[in-house]
Amino acid sequence: MLIKQAPDIAPSEITDYQLYLNRRSFLIGMAALALAPTVPTAAAAPPAGAPLPASRSERYTVDDPLTSFENITTYNNFWEFGSNKDDPSRLAYLLKPRPWTIQIDGHVARPRRYDIEELLRLFPLEERVYRLRCVEGWSMVIPWIGYPLASLIKRVEPTSKARFVEFTTLHDPTQFPGQRKGLFNLSSLDWPYVEGLRLDEALHPLALLTFGLYGQVLPNQDGAPVRIVLPWKYGFKSAKSIVRIRFVSEQPKTTWEKAAPNEYGFYSNVNPAVDHPRWSQGTERRIGEFRRRKTLMFNGYADQVASLYAGMDLQRNF
Ligand SMILES: Nc1nc2c(c(=O)[nH]1)N[C@H]1C(S)=C(S)[C@@H](COP(=O)(O)O)O[C@H]1N2
Ligand SMILES: [Mo]
């Protein structure tokens, strides 16, 4: 059985938000001039992707310093590429984020297959700065670009039978080496990667359908061309490279529940009071910092999401 590790990584450089903003306006300027963006940056950043303009949200942001683009794009969990933190950035070139479609089906009045270009333009894009807390004990602060998942959900009109939403990642071993069967993948996950939410969780305004980060389209290793981001839940709930959103009446069986049901529950809300069976969830290591931080209930979003779980036993519904 495959088991997530709780690693301790070497500290990295501290993010300079101003540097990002400068670089972003520089990129947008370059794009406007239709020049090839060979961008000289202070940090050895990976090549810049296509700019993705968005208006910065005043409401959905946090004061914590941003994690560097470098760290966000080289320290990843994306098991489709492999189980090491650098596998996704090393092998990301294998994923082809265009053409791409996303199937929306199940209990909805308007089931449809959307082309990614259309999906991207359905609603205005916002930049939101969210904390991301991995179940392994590290965290980041990421300026995502997307629009509320709720906007898309309302558009396809779930019927009264829709009680849960299931998200499925692309299954293609030619693009995802981690999905190939073989000696080195004996203990891999059950593909495709499936995640799920209760419908009311999926409709929560924090749930973001995400197309970009740091002013540009999602790098492949971060889940191009479209993923979800659920900042109050452990990172593995935020499925990457989604090809299908299905509305169902029964609670979906998720990939990590299937792999280790006693370790990864359906809810997986960030909760410092409920330890993982093999390690504490009380503190976290913010990538780029030295001292550990205290993990906050619902990752610091309790005032916004606690009511979703009123009356539930969070020890049992972990
Ligand atoms: N399809 C898919 N989605 C995934 C994963 C994965 O392995 N496959 N890993 C998850 C985990 S464990 C985390 S912490 C986040 C990491 O997102 P990031 O690499 O963009 O920071 O993606 C989540 N989404
Ligand atoms: Mo994670």
UniProtKB/TrEMBL annotation:
Swiss-Prot/TrEMBL keywords: Metal-binding, Molybdenum, Oxidoreductase, Signal
Catalysis performed (reactions): L-methionyl-[protein] + a quinone + H2O = L-methionyl-(S)-S-oxide-[protein] + a quinol; L-methionyl-[protein] + a quinone + H2O = L-methionyl-(R)-S-oxide-[protein] + a quinol
Cofactor(s) it depends on: Mo-molybdopterin
Molecular functions per Gene Ontology: metal ion binding; molybdopterin cofactor binding; oxidoreductase activity, acting on a sulfur group of donors, quinone or similar compound as acceptor
InterPro entries, sorted: MsrP, OxRdtase_Mopterin-bd_dom, OxRdtase_Mopterin-bd_sf, TAT_signal
Binding site for Mo-molybdopterin: N76, C134, T169, R227, S238, A239, K240
Stretches assigned to the Oxidoreductase molybdopterin-binding domain: 96-256
Cofactor note: Binds 1 Mo-molybdopterin (Mo-MPT) cofactor per subunit.
Annotated GO biological process: protein repair
Pfam families for the chain: Oxidored_molyb (PF00174)
Modification note: Predicted to be exported by the Tat system. The position of the signal peptide cleavage has not been experimentally proven.
EC number: 1.8.5.-
Subunit structure: Heterodimer of a catalytic subunit (MsrP) and a heme-binding subunit (MsrQ).
UniProt-listed NCBIfam families: PRK05363.1 (NF003767)
Its job: Part of the MsrPQ system that repairs oxidized cell envelope proteins containing methionine sulfoxide residues (Met-O), using respiratory chain electrons. Thus protects these proteins from oxidative-stress damage caused by reactive species of oxygen and chlorine. MsrPQ is essential for the maintenance of envelope integrity under bleach stress, rescuing a wide series of structurally unrelated cell envelope proteins from methionine oxidation. The catalytic subunit MsrP is non-stereospecific, being able to reduce both (R-) and (S-) diastereoisomers of methionine sulfoxide.
Family to which the UniProt record says this protein belongs: Belongs to the MsrP family.
Name used for this protein in its record: Protein-methionine-sulfoxide reductase catalytic subunit MsrP
Native organism taxonomy: Bacteria, Candidatus Methylomirabilota, Candidatus Methylomirabilia, Candidatus Methylomirabilales, Candidatus Methylomirabilaceae
